[in-house]
Amino acid sequence: MAALVHLVRHAEVDNPDDLVCGSLAGFDLSPNGLEQARRVGRYLGPRPVVAIWSSPVQRALRTAEEIANRSTVPVRVHADLGPWSLTDRWKGHPWNTISERFPGELESYLDDPTSLSFSPEQLRDVADRVAGVARELDASHPHGDVVIVTHRDVVQAGRLLLTGASLSSLHDEPPATGAVVTLRPGATWIEETVWGPTDTPRFGERSDLRVVTAGSPGDGPTSA
């Protein structure tokens, strides 16, 4: 099995109108997001990274490319790492208009994201696809670390399913932009650390990194 699997939420997006991005093209990283991505690369630099996989969406790919710049590992794309298709239902609309344009939907997402009749994809399906990618990469890369770059709810759903936590915890301590959720694969996957770009740049240098055991629960709406 892989030494560690790092689930990375893409860095901050250049999105001044606060639109729901979904799978829309044309949303690159902001200047701050670019620096966040570079800090992720520096943070993971000491690790023996053998694979970097990304969502096909531009903001995730750009983040993955900055991480890859710290190594000789190429970025590869996996369709199953794309955004939750729920956000494509709302894409192109400002977040602050969703409640008006889609009455009750945002409220239902925030109240119980595990059961959304209007969503083209259920949360469990999101969790299954990203966890499936993580398990596949764990099995195919036994001698190093794997980096997976994707979107907020996708990272969160995957981490919850892999560590045996409830998907109803989706909105509890979700990863911030550029955050790295580090998992140790095994019979039960263990969440070891959660790091963000405002923390120290090198892996393992900080003694007070939050350590989470399997089954422990992981910002409001997001452009993901």
Structural commentary:
The structure is a single chain. The protein has 224 residues and is an alpha/beta fold. The chain has a single domain, classed as Rossmann fold (3-Layer(aba) Sandwich), CATH 3.40.50.1240. A hairpin with a 5-residue loop joins strand 5 and strand 6. Strands 3-2-4-1-5-6 form a six-stranded mixed beta sheet, sandwiched between helices. It has seven helices and six strands, in the order βαβαβααααβαββ. It is globular.
Name its key features:
224 residues, alpha/beta, Rossmann fold, 6-stranded mixed sheet, globular
- Rg, Cα atoms, Å: 16 Å
What is the total number of structural domains?
1
Name the helix and strand elements from N-terminus to C-terminus, one letter apiece: EHEHEHHHHEHEE
And the CATH topology? Rossmann fold
Number of helices: 7
Query: Span between N and C termini?
Result: 29 Å
Q: Tell me the strand percentage band.
A: 5-15%
The second-level CATH architecture is 3-Layer(aba) Sandwich
Query: CATH class, anyone?
Result: Alpha Beta
Main sheet summary: 6 strands, mixed
pLDDT < 50 runs, ≥5 residues: 206-220
How many β-strand runs? Answer: 6
The order of strands across the largest sheet is: 3-2-4-1-5-6
Helix and strand composition category: alpha/beta
